[in-house]
Amino acid sequence: MLSGILIAALLMTLWGGWQPDIAHASDEFDALRIKWATLLTGGPALDPADSDIAARTDKLAQDANDYWEDMDLSSSRTYIWYALRGNGTSDNVNAVYERLRTMALAATTVGSSLYGNADLKEDILDALDWLYVNSYNSTRSRSAYNWWHWQLGIPMSLNDIAVLLYDDISAARMATYMDTIDYFTPSIGLTGANRAWQAIVVGVRAVIVKDAVKLAAARNGLSGTGIFPYATGGDGFYADGSFVQHTTFAYTGGYGSSVLETTANLMYLLSGSTWSVSDPNQSNVWQWIYEAYRPLLYKGAMMDMVRGREISRSYAQDHAVGHGIVASIVRLAQFAPAPHAAAFKQIAKRVIQEDTFSSFYGDVSTDTIRLAKAIVDDPSIAPAAAPNLYKQYAAMDRAVLQRPGFALGLALYSTRISSYESINSENGRGWYTGAGATYLYNQDLAQYSEDYWPTVDAYRIPGTTVASGTPIASGTGTSSWTGGVSLAGQYGASGMDLSYGAYNLSARKSWFMFDDEIVALGSGISSTAGIPIETVVDNRKLNGAGDNAWTANGAALSTGLGVAQTLTGVNWVHLAGNTADGSDIGYYFPGGATLQTKREARTGTWKQINNRPATPSTAVTRNYETMWIDHGTNPSGASYGYVLLPNKTSAQVGAYAADPAIEIVVNTSGVQSVKEKTLGLVGANFWTDTTQTADLITSNKKASVMTREIADERLEASVSDPTQANNGTIAIELARSAEGYSADPGITVTQLAPTIKFTVNVNGAKGKSFHASFQLGEDTSGPVDPGEPELPSVIVDNADSAGVTRTGTWKTASTQTDRYGANYLHDDNAGKGTKSVTFTPNLPIAGSYEVYLMWPAHFNREDAVQVDVGHASGTTRTAVDQRSGGGVWHSIGTYEFLAGSGGSVTIRNDALGSPDGYVVADAVKFVAVG
Fold it and tell me: What is its EC class?
């Protein structure tokens, strides 16, 4: 307890010199404060007749009323709420301020039944006074129990309350509250999400007290570690779209979403003011949406594999979090440069409309509802196309495949990234959520919502290989071989060298992601722990009755709960989904398998996985079908292989099993490889630094490689060092002949025939995929001069010192990896019809040349980019669609050219597509033909 003398001193501080509110002259700070208040409440123009806004304000008023009724308002009180007694416990004090913030919102939001309620406001202010004396003042330690509450959580709530009730708070009272915040959070010096929270605390307080120096410091804080600049280690956003917090945890949908929200709000607040952000690195924020969030959002849900310990929070399930991220995208759309604002609106509209499970408007603020409805109701805004991609997040050991109708997330760990986070009594059963876990999303949008995490068997997470019934400790792994390769942003291969030291369990695990199938391989599975080892094929939440139909090899299986089965000679399985269509799953087992299955009702509580005070302890029950492969006790060199076939009917799965599109090339502890015959794809993971071959691919080092052969004319290849530890090169040989090529910097082609040979310099590449494209055909010229493409094939890159002429202002960018060379040019989606880039080759001989273009693709590109080819007979105009096909050469025809520099290719930014988009100029290739 505080001494009587100290209490008196604090009261004198609070009330000394008390005076009624002073009418200050309106200035820019007042405008910013009102802008922040509008962000919180929707402002005076909020339409209470709108049904979604009314539902939100009704809920707000109900929550506030419930809190108000439960308050202890007595003069002798020793707490504000009995349930949150314990005034020195930081989480309780933080929760008290959060409740008072809710009450302040109800008192100041148009349409709330408590709007303008003077008694409510007075009780809030009395509670703040009591808290100042008893809980939150400058005599407190800044870090007792949990520093986050004192320095970030409580100040954010108190700032908002001060803005909302600004006209009801005396100058003396306000100074006391603001001085306390300044005591706990005087400056900005942390990283990642914590830095963003510091910036918003300092910034909003600066607006309230009209401190220009502190407001500038808040703005400048965004330019620090873990926010605007891309991280190269530790916390923050990475150039590949990864987000890491606490040094080793993948957190795009957890701390990353907080960085996004807080940064978007502070940038919005300052936009158009004296303190608006001018740091050029703010452009990275726009890329967060494209690279970090668009691939990881599925129909309103944020993928759980990047939410860390937050998956154990009952109030923050995947759709609620996804809606919060979309709310931040809506906020960014209010002030981002026009092309990005337009793209953000399209993305937001698509996600809001396609989430048929949970209403977006039920999870966001009244102001966000107002802004989002303006987007959704605008017929001139077309929803963005659904993602169709494969993306490797090398910096956080994650990968994602998105296809129309389904998505698959893959969560791995390594010496760089930890398996799971469990601190502050949260995520107590997260053991295998990042240990080779697969997350399959389809039209069953409730799969990972509605109490999945407290009820799923946490020892059997899909995709994992485990010692049966045993947990693993949180931490980084013992092997650096985790990662994969992306080919053309559409296909990929990933792998993990698994080792659980506690159980002497090791395995090599790979996943090959093609168009509508995911192939999972395991090899070298060994253990001496005396515990059964198993690989979990799936653990799917079923419908409410638990009676989803399922078949094995076409024969119906029991749908009774509590039934466990051993199925032998299984070639394929089909499991009916929880929706009328779009949620069935097929499983194909090449060569057959013995499958263990269990259908059961599972009961659990959120409290069992999150032991925080406010976590509900009510039991919930859900039904599951679990399938796994039993490798036996103390296996040595065991293996497995299966194929996931999302959204296929039973008949389609049976037909696939009879004539599979995939072929397992090899599955050993040295190399794992799969061929997709219909697409011409071969993927291979090489596990050792010895020369090994898989199909057409030979590698001399640890590597992940994927190739695609297109119509016997072109061979695309991508290579990465998933270990991120090779400080030299990888030598690749492909059993094909070529007559020309293009390649990323870092690739040196040494031979085109009778086989293709090249090396990849992966020193410092940090898991990046390197791309090369080969024009197939016979070559008789012998070895290629390293570093120079074989003539007569000439490439002109935008970065070349000669042969490139710009008209108008073009910006240089390097964000996208499906580019040629170090960077590319874009027109900033401005000055349409006034800009061009002309590529002029110096051709060694006269004759016919086939002309190719390469560009980094993006959905915000122009779909009809005008291209003029200047040749010996005149000029020919053609058009290309830059929204897709990035990172590969596209032929635009064959033309006659004179020797020398008389020919050219001009890329124009005429606005002829619909809708208008960015135009990029990257590279042009001229290949002589016979």
Answer: lyase
Answer yes or no: is 571 a known binding residue: no
Q: Is 393 annotated as a binding residue?
A: no
Q: Which of 623, 642, 517 is nearest to 578 (CA)?
A: 623
Instruction: Spell out the residues 6+ positions from residue 84 whose beta carbon is closer than 8 angstroms to its own.
Output: 92, 93, 95, 96, 99
Q: Give which of 559, 458, 438 is closest to 509, Cα–Cα.
A: 438
CA distances for 405 relative to 225, 610, 847, angstroms? 38, 32, 48
Answer left, alpha or beta for residue 808, where phi above 0 means left and psi between -120 and 50 means alpha. left
For 182, 499, 698, 743, 758, the CA distances from 771, given in Å and listed in that order, are 51, 30, 16, 6, 11
Residue carrying structure tokens 């506030």: 64
pLDDT at 16: 45
What is the gyration radius of the CA atoms in the chain, in angstroms?
Answer: 30
Residue 778 belongs to what H/E stretch? none
How far are the Cα atoms of 99, 479, 671, 688, 698 from residue 691, in angstroms, in the given order?
63, 20, 10, 8, 7
Q: Is 421 annotated as a binding residue?
A: no
pLDDT of residue 250: 98
Q: Which of 457, 455, 459 is nearest to 471 (CA)?
A: 459
Q: Give the pLDDT confidence of 44-60 residue by residue, as tens digits.
A: 989 999 999 999 999 99
Q: What are phi and psi of 263, to 5 degrees?
A: -65, -45
pLDDT at position 802 is 85
**Residue 145 assigned to a binding site:** no
Ligand-binding annotation for 65, yes or no, is no
Q: Which two tokens stand for residue 896?
A: 């006659």
Q: Which two three-digit tokens encode residue 857?
A: 């693709």
Hunting for tokens 């050991």 — which residue is that?
397
Residue 857, burial from CB neighbour count under 10 angstroms (0-12, 13-18, 19+): buried
827 annotated binding-site participant: no
Task: For each of the domains in the chain, give its residue range(s) and CATH number, in order of start.
Answer: 1-18+46-186 (1.50.10.100), 389-541+575-588+631-660 (2.70.98.10), 667-776 (2.60.220.10), 793-928 (2.60.120.260)
**Is 255 assigned a catalytic role?**
yes
Q: Whole-angstrom Cα distance, residue 243 to residue 246? A: 10
3-state DSSP call for residue 157?
Answer: helix
Whole-number Å distance between alpha carbons of 890 and 865: 13
In tens, the pLDDT along 604-651 reads 999 999 999 889 999 999 999 999 999 999 999 999 999 999 999 999
Cis peptide before 792 (omega within 30 of 0): yes
CB atoms within 10 A of CB 555: 7
| Placement of tokens 């310990």 in the chain | 309
Range 183-198 burial, b when 16+ CB lie within 10 A, else e: bbbbebebbbbbbbbb
Q: Please indicate if the annotation marks 883 as binding a ligand.
A: no
Cβ–Cβ under 8 Å, residues 190 and 183: no
Residue among 30, 31, 36 at smallest CA distance from 268: 36
Main-chain dihedrals φ then ψ at residue 99, nearest 5 degrees:
-65, -40
pTM for this predicted structure:
0.84
Rounded CA separation 220/440 (Å): 41
Whole-number Å distance between alpha carbons of 808 and 831:
8
Residue carrying structure tokens 């100074």: 175
- 2 C-beta neighbours (distance < 10 Å), count: 15
Partnered with residue 852 across adjacent β-strands are 891, 925
Residue 490's CB is within 10 A of a number of other CB atoms, namely 23
Residue 279: is it exposed, middle or buried by C-beta count within 10 angstroms (0-12/13-18/19+)? Answer: middle
Contact between 902 and 840 (Cβ < 8 Å): no
Q: How confident is the model at residue 2 (pLDDT cuts 50, 70, 90)?
A: very low
- Check 97, 132, 251, 255 and give the catalytic one: 255
And the tokens for 848?
Answer: 């016919």
**287 DSSP assignment:** H
Count Cβ atoms below 10 Å from residue 12 Cβ, excluding itself: 10
The token pair that represents 321 in the structure block = 């979090």
Residue 452 annotated as lining a ligand binding site: no
